[in-house]
Sequence to fold (295 residues):
Amino acid sequence: MTGSNSRQKGEVVQKLGHEFAMKDLGPLSFFLGIEVSYFPRGTHLNQSKYANDLIIKVHIANVRTVHTPLAQKHGLEEAIGKAVDPSIYKSTVGSLQYLTLTSPDITHVVNLVSQFMQNPNNMHLQGVKKILRFVKGTIDHGLRIKSHSSFKLYGFSDADWAGCAITRRSTTRYSIYLGANCVSWSSRKQNTVTRSSAEVEYRALAATAAEFTWIGYILQDIVVYIKTAPVLLCDNLSALYMTTNPVMHARTKHVELDYHFVREKVAQGQLITQFVRSKDQLVDVHTKALGTDQF
Fold:
């Protein structure tokens, strides 16, 4: 139970106690593998115990840490090696997927290694272990939720054009913030092959706009209203022009019409799209393998 009024929370707990047998365990400190701690103006969420148990399970507790979860030239899609037990690989990657609940910085690489579940080899497993070595070095990191942040909703959208070396499908990534707090993030391969960088970025904009809509409904359900339209930042000018230009050029005719709800939201004032320089693109960490300095 949570709320901003301590007196009302106490009254609700008291009424529930009259109806049901219950025990008040005090402030939340641990829930489903997520540790909760508090600082003066907010809450910190992490999964250090869960991560440490996983590190011990895969026998890398004494291995040195690394500064990034994946090498820039990893070559995992085309990696050839000795087959490994799929059940062990699936179990470890599944645990990593759960770790992304409080570790957005490994979302992209976990998405990548998840693609080899059916036929993993030792090279893929080494990639998974490198992610865990990174997790080991950042085991106390997590999400800081500030209680006095503004109610401005904004997000970053990005994509890698034809990033998969095997299928040439692209991957959509976004991160969405409510004030200073990161509240939603994703790294997901697109369903179809795209024929231009503008198209792939536009599809990413559409996915992010849909997430904005869903978050807006959740905020309304808890009686939190955003007074200004959410701002969506993208580093591709061609895709941004497509959100405001009503003319369909030949190069964009093949973009499915259902993605043009982005343009409709912009026209209705429900969404603002803005350009962001590539070096200021925060979602890059969800898009590609970065070097140590950038990461």
